[in-house]
Amino acid sequence: MIDMTRYAGQTAGTLLNRLLDDSVSRHLGIKLDTPLTRVMLSLIALAAVVAGYRLVFGIGAASNLNDQWPWGLWIGFDVLGGVAMAAGAFMIAGAVYILNWKKYKCIARASILNAFFGYLLAAISITLDVGRSLVIWHPLVMWQINSIMFIVALHLVLYLSTLATESSPMVLEKLGWQRALDGVHRIMVGAVMFGVALSLLHQSSLGANYLIVPGKLSPLWYNKHLPYQFLASALMMGFSMVSFETILTGKVFKHSVPFDVIKGLARGIMIVGSFYLVFKLFELVQGPGLLAPFDGSLEGGMWLLEMAVGVVLPLLLLALPSVRRNRNKLFAVDILVIFGVLFNRLNVCIFGVARYNTAFGGDYFPSAMEWILTLGMIAFAVLGFKLCAKYLNLFPEPH
Asked: How far apart are CA 252 and CA 259, in angstroms?
């Protein structure tokens, strides 16, 4: 066990000084006072005001959700999309700590931290989206094991705690708490194995939520294998998101990551993306038919856009050796995949149920407050990542 009394004598000022020592980031040239940082702080402040308004006056006053549209932007983008973007953490952590693929160790911390912020924002979004936010803690003590929503809530809490544990070595190193750091290292492999199992279950259980709406969700997306499609697309998104953030932070923070790491992630996108494409086409044949997306409907157009931009085009580009050898071109592929999977989540949550909901008098477009809160949470995640890059050893030297 970790003896925390060892640190009881350290003052809060001493700990704060250690955390704010920017010696780690001097070689990265990270500056906090920039126009972009000011914009992010403004968005965060506006989002905080919106969150307070929603808690005081209710979800109906802050959003355009209604009885026909109980889920909108906050669930479709912030939760379903945010959790998918966090999928890279369990894959990279598993590769490093379980399979001992050491070449990916240089991106493990950044991948796990990105997932932590993704899950944190998903938790905040769910808290604000439920009707009675102040009783969001009830599932932790009032178990309903027959409810898929309970499973989702439990997975979210457990995996967020696991990600915090996996990210803690950076903070403990900074504080100089060696005994606590040694304790975390001893349980790291077990924590990663637990996190891999949780994440696999959680990614698929989000898709399982929609198995209860067969009459509402368009057959272009609804099928009994929807949980597995959610998992496969999340894996594809995970590889792309890790590659995207690795290339982007390499440019912005001026740290070098071996190109072999980027190529490995691109290989993962090709393998999972090919499987996902075949899977989607198989379900299309088994369900509404191959010609269904070409019927001129809104759903058909959205399905084609999702698949063309997010799956087919990236796979065609990755088939070209000139793309696989170019970091900037792989960056463009990452953006396409991320867009495609996010669009898939919006299709399932919003566009795929639009025909049914509008037939019963419901109409939905996100309110200004919904957009502000979403943008503010994105800004919070980006700024939090930047602060960690400045003050913590987020980018260890490549092996």
From this structure: 16
Walk me through the domains of the chain, giving residue ranges and CATH numbers.
65-364 (1.20.1630.10)
Instruction: Please write the tens of the pLDDT for every residue from 342-366.
Output: 999 999 999 999 988 888 877 889 9
The Cα–Cα gap between 300 and 132 comes to 36
Match 């294998």 to its residue by tokens.
225
d(C-alpha 56, C-alpha 38), whole Å: 27
- Which of 269, 274, 262 lies closest to 239, judged by CA? 269
How many Å apart are CA 281 and CA 210, to the nearest integer? 19
C-alpha to C-alpha distances, 304 to 7, 177, 368, 388, nearest whole angstrom: 57, 53, 28, 39
Across the chain, mean pLDDT equals: 87
Question: For the chain, how big is the Rg over CA atoms in Å?
Answer: 22
Q: CB–CB of 53/372 below 8 Å?
A: no
CA–chain centroid gap for 377, Å, is: 12
CB 122 within 8 A of CB 79: yes
Contact indicator for 210, 217 with CB cutoff of 8 Å: yes
Pick the range with the lowest mean pLDDT from 61-70, 237-246, 280-289.
61-70
CA distance 176 to 179: 9
| CA-based nearest residue to 80, from 230, 243, 272 | 230
- pLDDT tens sequence across 173-230: 988 889 999 999 999 999 999 999 988 888 998 898 899 888 899 999 999 999 999 9
pLDDT at residue 191, rounded to an integer = 92
pLDDT value of position 11: 63
